[in-house]
Design goal:
Creatine Kinase, Chain A, domain 2; Ubiquitin-like (UB roll); about 450 residues; six-stranded mixed β-sheet; ten-stranded mixed β-sheet
């Protein structure tokens, strides 16, 4: 028995676990896997799961072409012992463990989003670098509505009234949903999810939660768990929590802003700062890489048709990749900080995106910038909303740019890029088949 296997068995014994949720994230960021009785779970072997889960669309369909073997083979799921924790809402003592996916000869499955992030982090480790990530996640609380054709509405809080309008940074408006957030904090603490700030965002019943900064893989794991936790708490309070990028007409979209810095492991210092405290060349090259490659990576940051409703002018979301100091109109913002905390905030991603792929893509673009010594343009002091669009305007354009970008294909693997493109093609075609209420209202009898 290995040390890892023994540690998992001890933890399961100490917590008197009766069953285990064995999880891995698919392309959309949803948790797939199996629930296994404790006496059937072998941490040394893990369990089996079809590799085809990574070729599945968000609607459960598959591309016509096979991107996994035609025999639909299994892969092995091996537990990451650092991710084991309780499922705080389960009635019986239940553990959840995030698993890594490998072939039966021990090779990482190249279609696993978690493995993709680990692949990018290995590039940093080879340079003696370690990325530091702090994600900010926005989401809406909405009324329960089973009919998909009815627009979403804000929920009622403790006063039995819905918010009258946008209440940015309102403490009283957050207090309306105190029962939700009290339980959310307790459940997140039980899972080791390191929450920082809670604020009311611009939208009606729109909230933002920040995670503490830390190592990239663990933060991506925590984002996946956080989204699942908030949905569960909301349902138990007779409302929904939605992480759609643009769930309601006339309301701001929901982002997953990403604060990034890099530690030089040789010195322990921030790679983005020189010894004299000024910005380093690595800092500028990282921004240059983001500017050069984020247009091709947009399909990871805006993965659905709905995502592009958020990326429009004057909606507090970026439309280009200008950068500036403490300038929230820019796609790339540099917050005010001391040299040790110098970082870059990538404001492109929607909260609907898969965190493993968002982190991997942003770090890959920055890595390419540092390796190729790409210089950014000058920082912007005015409004970036006045500047031209630089990003794809819809999903179809985004996946075309992604497939054509050889540097990203080399880092992510061409098989992964081709599979992701095929999945997004299917999702786009499915959306295109749906006739919207706008079309029926304005075209049915008038054209």
């Amino acid at each position: 028995m290995t040390d890892t296997t023994a540690a998992i068995q001890r933890w399961l014994d100490e917590h008197r676990i009766s069953e285990i949720e064995c999880l891995t994230s698919d392309m959309s960021g949803q948790s797939r896997g199996k629930i296994v009785p404790r006496h059937k779970y072998d941490p040394a072997f893990g369990l089996r799961l079809p590799e085809a889960v990574f070729a599945m669309t968000v609607t459960g369909e598959y591309p016509e072409k096979d991107f996994t073997a035609v025999a639909d083979p299994d892969m092995r799921l091996l537990p990451d012992a650092s991710t084991i924790c309780l499922v705080p809402w389960a009635k019986e003592p239940t553990a959840q463990i995030i698993h890594d996916c490998v072939t039966f000869d021990g090779q990482p499955v190249d279609l696993s989003p978690r493995n993709v992030l680990k692949r990018i982090l290995a590039l940093y480790a080879a340079e003696g670098w370690q990325p530091v990530i702090a994600p900010e996640m926005e989401f809406y609380l909405v009324q329960v509505e089973a009919d998909e054709d009815i627009p979403l509405k804000p929920p009622t809080g403790r006063t039995k009234r819905s918010e009258p309008g946008m209440q940015s940074f309102s403490i009283e408006s957050v207090d309306e949903y105190g029962d939700v957030f009290d339980v959310m904090y307790d459940w997140c603490e039980a899972q080791g999810i390191q929450l920082d700030t809670l604020v009311h965002e611009m939208g009606t019943a729109q909230m933002e939660i920040n995670l503490d900064h830390g190592e990239a893989l663990s933060r991506a794991d925590q984002v996946v768990r956080f989204k699942r936790t908030v949905r569960e708490v909301a349902i138990r309070n007779h409302m929904y929590a939605t992480f759609m990028a643009k769930p309601m007409q006339g309301q701001p979209g929901s982002a997953m802003h990403l604060h990034q810095s890099v530690i030089d492991l040789a010195t322990g210092g921030n790679l983005f700062s020189r010894p004299d405290g000024e910005a380093s060349d690595h800092f500028l090259h990282f921004i240059g890489g983001l500017q050069a490659f984020l247009p091709a990576a947009t399909a990871f940051f805006a993965p659905y048709v709905n995502s592009y409703r958020r990326l429009s002018r004057f909606t507090s979301a970026p439309i280009n990749l200008s950068w500036g100091h403490d300038n929230r109109t820019c796609g790339l913002r540099v917050p005010r900080s001391g040299p040790e905390a110098r970082r870059i905030e990538n404001r492109l991603a929607g909260v609907d995106a898969n965190p493993y792929l968002v982190f991997a893509a942003s770090l890959a673009c920055g890595y390419l910038g540092m390796k190729q010594r790409i210089r950014p343009d000058d920082p912007l002091t005015g409004s970036a909303y006045e500047k031209p669009h630089q990003l794809p305007r819809h999903l179809d354009e985004a996946v075309e740019k992604l497939e054509a970008c050889e540097p990203l294909a080399e880092l992510f693997g061409s098989h992964f890029i081709q599979t992701y493109r095929a999945i997004k093609d299917v999702e786009y075609r499915e959306y295109f088949d749906v006739i919207s209420p706008w079309e029926r209202r304005h075209l049915l009898l008038h054209v």
